[in-house]
Amino acid sequence: MISNVRLLPVTVEMILRSPHEFHLTGSRFFGGVHEKSDWDFFACYSQALRTELLDYGFVLNSDETYSGDTEVVEVLSRNCVDPATMKPVKVDVQLLRSLDKKIAVQQALAKAFSSGKGLPGDKTIQRCIWFAAYADYDVALPSD
Q1: Mind listing the pLDDT tens digit for each residue in 77-90?
Q2: For the sheet containing 72-82, what is the strand order?
């Protein structure tokens, strides 16, 4: 019997049942899941959501992976255990300024990388791809 362990299915279920709008991203969205894949979600920043996640045991993530991403207000993470493998797995939630841009860019990238292998594995290359896609999105927007 396991006690006092943050089980992955319980955390994912909390996200799925939340009244806040969450979107799956990362390798689980793009189809590049591997043995060490974590769970990545994004949602629109609100103080209420931030408080809900912190109360649930998420902590502020200051990982360099998200530095320079102007869409991200902050990232909260929770370390869990996958009961199927008994291995640790992390759940990240990116809290964003706006959902529309991230959703549109993610859909465009999904089409561009539709091979099922996901984005390139190198995090630096992934960041460059996302930033370029954000820039394309901004250019495509009609000016006022």
Answers
A1: 999 988 888 889 99
A2: 22-25, 39-44, 87-96, 72-82, 59-61
In this prediction, residue 100 carries a pLDDT of 93
Letter for the amino acid at 138?
D
The average confidence (pLDDT) of the chain is: 86
Q: 8-139: which CATH number, 2.170.120, 2.30.29, 3.30.565, 3.30.460? A: 3.30.460
For 126, residues 6+ apart whose C-beta sits below 8 A from its C-beta are 119, 120
Query: Is the distance from CB of 105 to CB of 130 less than 8 angstroms?
Result: yes
At 123, list the tokens. 């995090």
Phi-psi map region of 115: left, alpha, beta (phi>0 left; psi -120 to 50 alpha):
alpha
